[in-house]
Amino acid sequence: MNFYSTNNPSGRVSMEEALLRSQPADRGLYMPETIPFLGADFFHSISGGTLADIGFQISSALFKDAIPVSRLEELVHQALPFDTPVVALEVGKTHVLELFHGPSLAFKDVGARYMAAMMGYFLEKSNREVHILVATSGDTGGAVAMGFLGVPGIKVTILYPSGRVSELQEKQLTTLGQNITAIEIDGSFDDCQDLVKTAFTDVELNQEFSLASANSINIFRLIPQSFYYVRAFGQVKHLGKPVVFSTPSGNFGNLSAGALAYKMGLPVAQFIAATNLNYVVPKYLKTGLYSPNPSVETISNAMDVGNPSNFVRLVHLFDDNFETLKQQLSGYFFDDEQTRQAMAEVYQQFGYVMCPHTAVGYLGLRSYQQANPDVCGIALATAHPAKFKDLVESVIHKPVEIPVALEELMSRTKQSVRMKADFADFKEFLLQTA
Q1: What's the rounded Cα separation, in Å, for the pair 333 and 16?
Q2: Is the pLDDT at 434 greater than 80, yes or no?
Protein backbone atom coordinates (compact mmCIF):
# COMPACT_ATOMS: atom_id res chain seq x y z
CA MET A 1 0.00 0.00 0.00
CA ASN A 2 1.46 3.31 -1.13
CA PHE A 3 0.21 6.85 -0.55
CA TYR A 4 0.23 10.08 -2.55
CA SER A 5 -0.16 13.76 -1.69
CA THR A 6 -3.35 15.57 -2.63
CA ASN A 7 -1.02 18.29 -3.98
CA ASN A 8 1.00 15.82 -6.08
CA PRO A 9 -1.02 12.77 -7.20
CA SER A 10 1.89 11.41 -9.24
CA GLY A 11 4.26 10.95 -6.27
CA ARG A 12 4.24 7.85 -4.03
CA VAL A 13 5.51 7.04 -0.53
CA SER A 14 5.37 3.85 1.51
CA MET A 15 2.91 3.10 4.30
CA GLU A 16 5.70 3.59 6.84
CA GLU A 17 6.65 7.02 5.49
CA ALA A 18 3.05 8.24 5.30
CA LEU A 19 2.47 7.10 8.88
CA LEU A 20 5.65 8.54 10.39
CA ARG A 21 5.94 11.68 8.25
CA SER A 22 2.21 12.42 8.60
CA GLN A 23 2.12 15.29 6.10
CA PRO A 24 3.93 15.68 2.77
CA ALA A 25 6.50 18.45 2.40
CA ASP A 26 4.21 20.11 -0.17
CA ARG A 27 1.61 20.61 2.63
CA GLY A 28 -0.92 18.39 0.96
CA LEU A 29 -2.52 15.40 2.69
CA TYR A 30 -1.68 11.76 2.17
CA MET A 31 -4.28 9.53 0.55
CA PRO A 32 -4.15 5.78 -0.24
CA GLU A 33 -2.94 5.05 -3.78
CA THR A 34 -5.94 2.78 -4.20
CA ILE A 35 -9.07 2.45 -2.11
CA PRO A 36 -10.27 -1.12 -2.64
CA PHE A 37 -13.97 -1.45 -3.39
CA LEU A 38 -14.92 -4.33 -1.11
CA GLY A 39 -18.65 -4.19 -1.80
CA ALA A 40 -21.80 -4.40 0.30
CA ASP A 41 -21.53 -8.19 0.69
CA PHE A 42 -18.14 -7.82 2.38
CA PHE A 43 -19.50 -5.28 4.85
CA HIS A 44 -22.63 -7.30 5.56
CA SER A 45 -20.43 -10.28 6.37
CA ILE A 46 -17.92 -8.55 8.68
CA SER A 47 -20.15 -5.99 10.39
CA GLY A 48 -21.37 -8.44 12.99
CA GLY A 49 -17.87 -8.75 14.45
CA THR A 50 -16.23 -6.75 17.20
CA LEU A 51 -14.66 -3.38 16.48
CA ALA A 52 -11.22 -5.03 16.51
CA ASP A 53 -12.34 -7.87 14.21
CA ILE A 54 -13.73 -5.34 11.72
CA GLY A 55 -10.58 -3.23 12.02
CA PHE A 56 -8.36 -6.21 11.26
CA GLN A 57 -10.37 -7.20 8.17
CA ILE A 58 -10.33 -3.68 6.70
CA SER A 59 -6.66 -3.15 7.58
CA SER A 60 -5.78 -6.43 5.85
CA ALA A 61 -7.66 -5.36 2.72
CA LEU A 62 -5.93 -1.96 2.68
CA PHE A 63 -2.37 -2.83 3.65
CA LYS A 64 -2.00 -6.29 2.04
CA ASP A 65 1.41 -7.64 3.13
CA ALA A 66 2.92 -4.39 4.50
CA ILE A 67 2.66 -5.95 7.98
CA PRO A 68 2.59 -9.74 8.54
CA VAL A 69 -1.01 -10.87 8.98
CA SER A 70 -0.59 -12.38 12.45
CA ARG A 71 1.24 -9.28 13.70
CA LEU A 72 -1.36 -6.96 12.17
CA GLU A 73 -4.16 -8.84 13.91
CA GLU A 74 -2.30 -8.59 17.22
CA LEU A 75 -1.70 -4.85 16.80
CA VAL A 76 -5.33 -4.04 15.95
CA HIS A 77 -6.74 -6.08 18.83
CA GLN A 78 -4.19 -4.49 21.18
CA ALA A 79 -5.33 -1.03 20.07
CA LEU A 80 -9.09 -1.62 20.13
CA PRO A 81 -10.14 -3.70 23.17
CA PHE A 82 -13.38 -1.71 23.67
CA ASP A 83 -16.68 -1.54 21.78
CA THR A 84 -18.64 1.25 20.08
CA PRO A 85 -22.29 0.40 20.81
CA VAL A 86 -25.35 1.84 19.08
CA VAL A 87 -28.01 2.96 21.58
CA ALA A 88 -31.60 3.41 20.41
CA LEU A 89 -33.54 6.51 21.43
CA GLU A 90 -36.37 5.54 19.07
CA VAL A 91 -35.84 2.02 17.69
CA GLY A 92 -35.54 2.01 13.93
CA LYS A 93 -35.51 5.79 13.73
CA THR A 94 -33.11 7.65 16.02
CA HIS A 95 -29.94 6.17 17.50
CA VAL A 96 -26.62 7.31 18.92
CA LEU A 97 -23.30 5.62 18.27
CA GLU A 98 -21.35 5.81 21.53
CA LEU A 99 -17.70 6.40 20.73
CA PHE A 100 -16.58 7.24 24.26
CA HIS A 101 -15.80 3.83 25.74
CA GLY A 102 -12.03 4.12 25.34
CA PRO A 103 -9.60 5.39 28.01
CA SER A 104 -10.00 9.13 27.32
CA LEU A 105 -13.78 8.80 26.86
CA ALA A 106 -13.80 10.32 23.36
CA PHE A 107 -14.02 9.03 19.80
CA LYS A 108 -10.42 9.94 19.13
CA ASP A 109 -9.23 7.02 21.26
CA VAL A 110 -9.86 4.77 18.25
CA GLY A 111 -7.53 6.68 15.95
CA ALA A 112 -4.91 7.56 18.55
CA ARG A 113 -4.49 4.02 19.90
CA TYR A 114 -4.40 2.52 16.40
CA MET A 115 -1.74 5.03 15.34
CA ALA A 116 0.31 4.35 18.47
CA ALA A 117 0.26 0.62 17.77
CA MET A 118 1.27 1.04 14.13
CA MET A 119 3.98 3.61 14.88
CA GLY A 120 5.35 1.44 17.66
CA TYR A 121 5.66 -1.47 15.21
CA PHE A 122 7.60 0.47 12.57
CA LEU A 123 9.80 2.30 15.10
CA GLU A 124 10.76 -0.98 16.72
CA LYS A 125 11.73 -2.37 13.32
CA SER A 126 13.79 0.65 12.28
CA ASN A 127 15.12 1.72 15.70
CA ARG A 128 13.99 5.29 14.91
CA GLU A 129 12.58 8.00 17.17
CA VAL A 130 9.84 10.46 16.27
CA HIS A 131 8.54 13.70 17.76
CA ILE A 132 4.75 13.98 17.43
CA LEU A 133 3.24 17.45 17.21
CA VAL A 134 -0.50 17.72 17.86
CA ALA A 135 -2.96 20.61 17.82
CA THR A 136 -6.14 19.96 19.77
CA SER A 137 -9.47 21.72 20.10
CA GLY A 138 -10.39 19.45 23.00
CA ASP A 139 -10.51 15.68 22.72
CA THR A 140 -7.58 14.91 20.43
CA GLY A 141 -5.06 15.97 23.07
CA GLY A 142 -6.34 13.63 25.76
CA ALA A 143 -6.68 10.69 23.39
CA VAL A 144 -3.18 11.18 21.98
CA ALA A 145 -1.66 11.72 25.41
CA MET A 146 -3.16 8.49 26.73
CA GLY A 147 -2.61 6.53 23.54
CA PHE A 148 1.09 7.40 23.22
CA LEU A 149 1.99 7.63 26.92
CA GLY A 150 5.18 5.70 27.55
CA VAL A 151 5.50 4.35 23.97
CA PRO A 152 9.24 3.85 23.34
CA GLY A 153 10.80 6.08 20.69
CA ILE A 154 7.99 8.65 20.73
CA LYS A 155 7.92 12.14 22.24
CA VAL A 156 4.63 14.08 22.09
CA THR A 157 4.04 17.85 22.17
CA ILE A 158 0.39 18.95 22.35
CA LEU A 159 -0.76 22.50 21.55
CA TYR A 160 -4.16 23.66 22.81
CA PRO A 161 -5.98 27.03 22.88
CA SER A 162 -5.92 28.64 26.32
CA GLY A 163 -9.34 28.86 27.95
CA ARG A 164 -11.10 27.02 25.12
CA VAL A 165 -11.09 23.45 26.39
CA SER A 166 -13.04 22.06 29.33
CA GLU A 167 -11.32 21.52 32.68
CA LEU A 168 -11.43 17.75 32.30
CA GLN A 169 -10.08 17.92 28.76
CA GLU A 170 -7.21 20.10 29.99
CA LYS A 171 -6.41 17.73 32.84
CA GLN A 172 -6.20 14.81 30.42
CA LEU A 173 -3.49 16.42 28.35
CA THR A 174 -1.53 18.38 30.98
CA THR A 175 -1.14 15.97 33.89
CA LEU A 176 0.42 12.80 32.50
CA GLY A 177 4.07 13.85 32.19
CA GLN A 178 6.64 11.30 31.00
CA ASN A 179 6.94 11.70 27.20
CA ILE A 180 3.98 14.14 26.96
CA THR A 181 4.43 17.96 26.91
CA ALA A 182 1.49 20.38 26.77
CA ILE A 183 1.75 23.93 25.35
CA GLU A 184 -1.06 26.37 26.14
CA ILE A 185 -1.40 28.81 23.23
CA ASP A 186 -2.85 32.31 23.59
CA GLY A 187 -5.14 31.96 20.58
CA SER A 188 -7.59 29.68 18.81
CA PHE A 189 -7.40 26.09 17.63
CA ASP A 190 -6.70 27.41 14.13
CA ASP A 191 -3.62 29.18 15.55
CA CYS A 192 -2.46 25.91 17.12
CA GLN A 193 -3.05 24.05 13.89
CA ASP A 194 -1.13 26.66 11.87
CA LEU A 195 1.88 26.35 14.20
CA VAL A 196 1.94 22.58 13.74
CA LYS A 197 1.52 22.79 9.96
CA THR A 198 4.32 25.35 9.69
CA ALA A 199 6.62 23.17 11.79
CA PHE A 200 6.23 20.33 9.31
CA THR A 201 7.56 22.52 6.50
CA ASP A 202 10.40 24.13 8.49
CA VAL A 203 13.77 22.90 7.20
CA GLU A 204 15.71 23.31 10.45
CA LEU A 205 13.11 21.49 12.57
CA ASN A 206 12.94 18.63 10.10
CA GLN A 207 16.73 18.32 10.17
CA GLU A 208 16.66 18.17 13.97
CA PHE A 209 13.63 15.89 14.43
CA SER A 210 11.66 13.20 12.69
CA LEU A 211 8.36 15.03 13.00
CA ALA A 212 4.99 13.28 12.88
CA SER A 213 1.40 14.23 13.62
CA ALA A 214 -1.41 12.46 15.44
CA ASN A 215 -3.96 15.01 14.24
CA SER A 216 -6.44 13.98 11.60
CA ILE A 217 -4.04 15.36 8.97
CA ASN A 218 -2.42 11.94 9.45
CA ILE A 219 -4.32 9.44 7.29
CA PHE A 220 -3.74 6.77 9.93
CA ARG A 221 -6.05 8.65 12.29
CA LEU A 222 -8.84 8.43 9.72
CA ILE A 223 -8.47 4.82 8.60
CA PRO A 224 -9.40 3.30 11.99
CA GLN A 225 -12.26 5.75 12.44
CA SER A 226 -13.89 4.13 9.42
CA PHE A 227 -14.17 0.92 11.44
CA TYR A 228 -16.90 2.15 13.77
CA TYR A 229 -19.15 3.21 10.92
CA VAL A 230 -19.05 -0.42 9.81
CA ARG A 231 -19.61 -1.65 13.37
CA ALA A 232 -22.63 0.67 13.68
CA PHE A 233 -24.08 -0.52 10.39
CA GLY A 234 -23.84 -4.09 11.68
CA GLN A 235 -25.91 -3.22 14.73
CA VAL A 236 -28.84 -1.74 12.76
CA LYS A 237 -28.85 -3.58 9.40
CA HIS A 238 -31.51 -6.02 10.66
CA LEU A 239 -33.98 -3.13 10.73
CA GLY A 240 -34.01 -3.14 6.92
CA LYS A 241 -34.00 0.64 6.50
CA PRO A 242 -31.62 3.01 4.69
CA VAL A 243 -28.87 4.02 7.15
CA VAL A 244 -27.79 7.63 7.54
CA PHE A 245 -25.02 8.99 9.76
CA SER A 246 -24.97 12.44 11.33
CA THR A 247 -21.44 13.39 12.30
CA PRO A 248 -20.64 16.38 14.57
CA SER A 249 -17.92 18.04 12.53
CA GLY A 250 -15.05 20.43 13.17
CA ASN A 251 -11.89 19.46 11.32
CA PHE A 252 -13.90 16.96 9.23
CA GLY A 253 -11.64 13.97 9.86
CA ASN A 254 -14.46 11.93 11.38
CA LEU A 255 -16.73 12.53 8.42
CA SER A 256 -13.91 11.82 5.97
CA ALA A 257 -13.44 8.46 7.71
CA GLY A 258 -17.09 7.66 7.06
CA ALA A 259 -16.64 8.65 3.43
CA LEU A 260 -13.65 6.30 3.23
CA ALA A 261 -15.84 3.40 4.40
CA TYR A 262 -18.49 4.42 1.87
CA LYS A 263 -15.87 4.50 -0.88
CA MET A 264 -14.95 0.92 0.03
CA GLY A 265 -18.59 -0.14 -0.33
CA LEU A 266 -20.33 0.40 3.02
CA PRO A 267 -24.02 0.96 2.12
CA VAL A 268 -24.68 4.41 3.59
CA ALA A 269 -27.73 6.23 2.25
CA GLN A 270 -26.58 9.68 3.39
CA PHE A 271 -24.00 11.49 5.47
CA ILE A 272 -24.89 14.59 7.47
CA ALA A 273 -22.32 17.24 8.35
CA ALA A 274 -23.58 18.83 11.57
CA THR A 275 -21.62 21.86 12.77
CA ASN A 276 -21.87 24.67 15.26
CA LEU A 277 -21.48 28.29 14.15
CA ASN A 278 -18.24 27.33 12.41
CA TYR A 279 -20.29 26.36 9.36
CA VAL A 280 -17.89 26.72 6.44
CA VAL A 281 -18.82 23.29 4.99
CA PRO A 282 -22.64 23.55 5.31
CA LYS A 283 -22.29 26.94 3.62
CA TYR A 284 -20.19 25.38 0.87
CA LEU A 285 -22.82 22.70 0.27
CA LYS A 286 -25.41 25.43 -0.18
CA THR A 287 -23.40 27.90 -2.29
CA GLY A 288 -20.58 25.91 -3.88
CA LEU A 289 -18.09 28.44 -2.47
CA TYR A 290 -15.52 27.44 0.13
CA SER A 291 -14.62 30.44 2.29
CA PRO A 292 -12.75 29.70 5.54
CA ASN A 293 -13.27 32.11 8.44
CA PRO A 294 -11.64 32.74 11.81
CA SER A 295 -13.04 30.19 14.26
CA VAL A 296 -15.98 31.17 16.48
CA GLU A 297 -15.96 30.10 20.13
CA THR A 298 -18.93 27.89 21.11
CA ILE A 299 -19.96 25.44 23.84
CA SER A 300 -19.13 22.56 21.45
CA ASN A 301 -15.49 23.61 21.58
CA ALA A 302 -13.91 20.61 19.87
CA MET A 303 -15.72 21.69 16.69
CA ASP A 304 -14.53 25.31 16.77
CA VAL A 305 -12.57 25.10 13.50
CA GLY A 306 -12.84 27.85 10.91
CA ASN A 307 -10.61 26.24 8.27
CA PRO A 308 -11.00 22.43 8.46
CA SER A 309 -7.87 20.60 7.31
CA ASN A 310 -9.74 17.58 6.03
CA PHE A 311 -12.04 19.47 3.68
CA VAL A 312 -9.65 18.70 0.82
CA ARG A 313 -9.79 14.98 1.69
CA LEU A 314 -13.58 15.01 1.87
CA VAL A 315 -13.88 16.56 -1.58
CA HIS A 316 -11.20 14.22 -2.88
CA LEU A 317 -13.12 11.16 -1.67
CA PHE A 318 -16.07 12.31 -3.76
CA ASP A 319 -13.94 12.65 -6.89
CA ASP A 320 -13.52 16.44 -6.57
CA ASN A 321 -17.07 16.74 -7.86
CA PHE A 322 -19.34 19.20 -6.09
CA GLU A 323 -22.55 17.63 -7.38
CA THR A 324 -21.47 14.14 -6.27
CA LEU A 325 -20.56 15.44 -2.82
CA LYS A 326 -23.78 17.42 -2.49
CA GLN A 327 -25.84 14.37 -3.42
CA GLN A 328 -24.29 12.22 -0.68
CA LEU A 329 -23.75 14.86 2.02
CA SER A 330 -26.22 17.19 3.72
CA GLY A 331 -25.08 20.07 5.91
CA TYR A 332 -26.71 21.82 8.87
CA PHE A 333 -25.44 24.18 11.55
CA PHE A 334 -26.74 25.17 14.97
CA ASP A 335 -26.04 27.81 17.61
CA ASP A 336 -25.40 27.33 21.33
CA GLU A 337 -29.01 27.93 22.33
CA GLN A 338 -30.25 25.23 19.95
CA THR A 339 -27.56 22.91 21.27
CA ARG A 340 -28.58 23.45 24.90
CA GLN A 341 -32.23 22.98 24.00
CA ALA A 342 -31.50 19.68 22.28
CA MET A 343 -29.53 18.42 25.28
CA ALA A 344 -32.45 19.27 27.56
CA GLU A 345 -35.11 17.80 25.29
CA VAL A 346 -33.27 14.53 24.76
CA TYR A 347 -32.82 14.12 28.49
CA GLN A 348 -36.46 14.94 29.22
CA GLN A 349 -37.84 12.73 26.46
CA PHE A 350 -35.46 9.75 26.53
CA GLY A 351 -33.51 10.06 29.78
CA TYR A 352 -30.31 10.16 27.72
CA VAL A 353 -27.46 12.55 28.60
CA MET A 354 -25.52 14.10 25.71
CA CYS A 355 -22.40 16.21 25.49
CA PRO A 356 -22.84 19.39 23.39
CA HIS A 357 -21.06 17.88 20.35
CA THR A 358 -23.35 14.86 20.34
CA ALA A 359 -26.33 17.21 20.61
CA VAL A 360 -25.21 18.99 17.43
CA GLY A 361 -25.07 15.63 15.67
CA TYR A 362 -28.54 14.79 16.97
CA LEU A 363 -29.89 18.11 15.70
CA GLY A 364 -28.42 17.46 12.27
CA LEU A 365 -30.09 14.05 12.16
CA ARG A 366 -33.50 15.37 13.19
CA SER A 367 -33.26 18.16 10.62
CA TYR A 368 -32.56 15.66 7.86
CA GLN A 369 -35.37 13.38 9.04
CA GLN A 370 -37.96 16.14 8.68
CA ALA A 371 -37.82 15.58 4.92
CA ASN A 372 -36.66 11.94 5.08
CA PRO A 373 -38.62 10.28 7.90
CA ASP A 374 -38.24 6.64 6.85
CA VAL A 375 -34.52 6.22 7.52
CA CYS A 376 -32.53 4.62 10.30
CA GLY A 377 -30.59 7.56 11.68
CA ILE A 378 -27.39 7.33 13.71
CA ALA A 379 -25.88 10.39 15.39
CA LEU A 380 -22.29 10.00 16.51
CA ALA A 381 -21.85 10.51 20.26
CA THR A 382 -18.29 11.73 20.28
CA ALA A 383 -17.52 12.30 23.98
CA HIS A 384 -18.73 11.26 27.42
CA PRO A 385 -20.92 14.00 28.94
CA ALA A 386 -18.77 14.03 32.09
CA LYS A 387 -16.04 15.74 30.06
CA PHE A 388 -18.38 18.76 30.00
CA LYS A 389 -19.80 18.25 33.47
CA ASP A 390 -20.55 21.84 34.46
CA LEU A 391 -22.21 22.68 31.16
CA VAL A 392 -24.29 19.49 31.02
CA GLU A 393 -25.45 19.83 34.61
CA SER A 394 -26.49 23.44 34.00
CA VAL A 395 -28.69 22.21 31.14
CA ILE A 396 -30.31 19.05 32.53
CA HIS A 397 -30.29 20.16 36.21
CA LYS A 398 -29.06 16.76 37.34
CA PRO A 399 -25.62 15.65 38.52
CA VAL A 400 -23.42 13.91 35.97
CA GLU A 401 -21.42 11.01 37.32
CA ILE A 402 -17.70 11.26 36.62
CA PRO A 403 -16.05 7.95 35.67
CA VAL A 404 -13.29 6.90 38.04
CA ALA A 405 -10.59 7.41 35.39
CA LEU A 406 -11.53 11.08 35.01
CA GLU A 407 -12.06 11.69 38.71
CA GLU A 408 -8.49 10.62 39.44
CA LEU A 409 -7.18 13.19 36.94
CA MET A 410 -8.93 16.08 38.69
CA SER A 411 -6.61 15.83 41.69
CA ARG A 412 -3.47 16.05 39.56
CA THR A 413 -1.48 19.24 39.00
CA LYS A 414 -1.64 20.89 35.60
CA GLN A 415 1.74 21.14 33.85
CA SER A 416 1.83 23.27 30.72
CA VAL A 417 3.95 25.88 28.97
CA ARG A 418 2.13 29.16 28.16
CA MET A 419 3.04 30.64 24.79
CA LYS A 420 1.93 33.24 22.24
CA ALA A 421 0.70 32.06 18.85
CA ASP A 422 4.10 32.88 17.35
CA PHE A 423 6.00 30.34 15.28
CA ALA A 424 9.43 31.73 16.17
CA ASP A 425 8.73 31.19 19.88
CA PHE A 426 7.34 27.71 19.24
CA LYS A 427 10.34 26.72 17.12
CA GLU A 428 12.79 28.02 19.71
CA PHE A 429 11.05 26.01 22.44
CA LEU A 430 11.25 22.80 20.40
CA LEU A 431 14.94 23.29 19.63
CA GLN A 432 15.81 24.12 23.25
CA THR A 433 14.03 21.04 24.57
CA ALA A 434 15.40 18.63 21.94
Answers
A1: 38
A2: no
